[in-house]
Amino acid sequence: MIASFRRTLSALAAFSLATGPLVAQTAPPSGYASVDPFIGTGGEGHSFPGAVAPFGMVQLSPDTDTRCEIRACYPHAAGYRYEDPTIQGFSMTHFSGAGHSDLGDFLVMPVRGDVVPLEPGDPATPRSGYRSRYAKQSETASPGYYAVQLDDAQTRAEMTAGTRIGVQRYRFTPGAPAHLVLDLRSALYTYPGKTLWSSVRIRPDGTITGMRETRGWAPARKLYFAMRPSAPLTGHGFFNAEEKVPYKGFQGPSRGRDDAAQLAGRALVARLDFGLLDRPLEVKVALSSVDEDGAIANLDSEPGDFDAIRARTRAAWEAALGVLQIDAPAPMRTSVYTALYHSLMAPSVFSDTDGRYRGPDDQVHRAEGFTFHSTFSLWDTFRAEHPLLLLVQPERRNADFIRSLLASQQASPFGILPVWQFHGRETWTMIGYHAVPVIADAYLKGVRGFDADAALAAMVQSASYGPYGGLDWYMRLGYVPIDKEPEAASKTVEYAYDDWTIARMARALGKADVAATFEKRAGNWRNSFDAKTGFLRARLSDGSFREPFDPTAINYGSDYTEGNAWQYSWFVPHDQAAMFRLLGGDAAAVRKLDAMFDFDNSKLDYSHAEDIAGLIGQYIHGNEPSHHVAYLYGFAGQPWRTQERLTQIVGSQYKPTPDGLSGNDDLGQMSAWLVFTALGFYPVAPGSNQYVIGRPFVDRAVLTLPNGKRFTVVASGLSDANRYVGKVTLNGRPLPRGYLRHEELVAGGELRFTMQPRPNRSWATARAARPYSASAAGVR
């Protein structure tokens, strides 16, 4: 963690869990006003502060450093870090909280006066390039808007975005010519040869168009742009930095012509001249994965100037955030609303206004009757992000996500659903086939608008594609052998969970044969569970467990994925009761959970593992495999222990500060965890149609559901002292169980918690009151 991650005690105290009722005569700020886009831009959050519309194709944000050959890419995965002193420019595409870098397309930077070298320059050497220092106190951001004063450029820069466009506004200090640098070389996760080809040209009407194809995290990714400035060009220069020939008017290695209307190559940079301006310069840019004409059509589809686009996007964010009304102290309001904001950025729109998009086969397709979305970080987001979207977004939007996954499967050269997809391209990052639980959970919770039979067939196909991730061995042996496939222990249990969700959807569709097959496969997690040590372990193809064994070891490409035996031994979300029995019963399970949280890490060094952050013992909140673990005490009949652990996690892992996320937000998963937890429940096993009850962190919340009904959560007496649940009522009647059914939630009503200073050791302890486990439900 960076030094600023450790705030003063007064700042921590400001994030108290509750401070009593709000003053009656003071209305709390709106959800929109409560969002702080700078949360997560420092520390390990990897979020960006720039302008984006809900699920927008464009994420227009500042890049402070893209020099991966000098600095590791990981800290700058989103292009921006809060503590960096300079801004390199403003590019059109970014990930929110990913653990990997790419994008950063079509960077623009204002330049005032004499044109500086058309290179970014060194952050430590002012005016060595077009990069600029900036005044941190001048920086401001809100949903759909970002602004900053660029000191060296003597320019006020503002950003806003629509669904498929970004708009920049530059207020140059008068008295010198205004220029823009358009750098088609700049990218996040840069290395030699990343840009395979690019082009730029000026059309007769003054529209600037171009494209580039890159080889980065996603291979052969093509993206096109169309740009319209509000003032006419007075001159321009297109240069190819690969051709090391000095050129008049440009200080640096390049070749080009000031009167060239177009240029193509692998290292292009453009200078756009506007002369002396007497008003702000607005630049509207649209993107397309299809072609330049598609980008122009997208540009025309969202008319209006900067202020009009900003107003429309603000209204969209107010509506999206307005589905949740929260009463809570200001620090908690800010954290929860910002978490909701971060949860509403992806999956992002990727089809053009005419429905065309480029798919995983690199061919152009057309989405008929739906909007194609991409950017699916499925290993992360199946857990809480997608279940949250089912509650806060219209059914049509969620159906579009499913139809996008199915369209990608149909266009996949391998015939399987996406694993980790962005801009229509597959990255093969992470493990599992986690599009499967996203589809199953949506269908089981009532989302329609897609072909359910075709969806089930795609799910089965993805779970049966032998060459992927050791699936051939998994289907043959009932587990993934470590001598045939890396990260085998993790893959075995994640496949088993995904298989259970296939079985659940097959049962719902009346496909008994498919359900029986995958119910059997769902029990394969047992084949890698070592009852002797009490840990999930990797097995060899001869059936023996791999030795030596260290449950604390974390190494990439070894037995586990971004974790170790401590985290992955709890990954049986569909059958915790069976796993507890293998551990020796409820008491043994609770002892092991306590041992995980209380583990002494003082002699362990995980600095080699980038994603291991937010440690509480061997619980790692900064990475996803741990996210359900605090809720497991309730499966052992001790829900008050879940309440204790949630207090510990929320108090230490979330703050309303730039370093306020303990780990990568991972396209909204870290944020979705907080939204659910703040409301008092969490989807431990998507596909079960249950939410495990924890404890609330807000005084009152009203959730407006997609069907128009409202579900209210009230935490009576919530305070720092009253952190335990005394009793729970649903619509005025006692709720004796430790879970909430989805159908109860979407019916609307009130979930009321009465909070108290001491644990209630009798509530929700009976076996019949515990959340879903497959074996307890009669599924073997």
UniProtKB/TrEMBL annotation:
Keywords: Hydrolase, Signal. Residues 1-24 form the signal peptide. GO terms for molecular function: carbohydrate binding; peptide-N4-(N-acetyl-beta-glucosaminyl)asparagine amidase activity. Residues 35-288 form the Glycosyl hydrolase family 92 N-terminal domain. Residues 295-756 form the Glycosyl hydrolase family domain. GO terms for cellular component: cytosol. Transmembrane segments: none annotated. It comes from the Bacteria. InterPro entries: 6-hairpin_glycosidase_sf, GH-type_carb-bd, GH92_a_mannosidase_put, GH92_N, Glyco_hydro_92, PNGase. One of its GO terms (biological process) is glycoprotein catabolic process. NCBIfam families: aman2_put. This is Sugar hydrolase. It comes from Sphingomonas hengshuiensis.
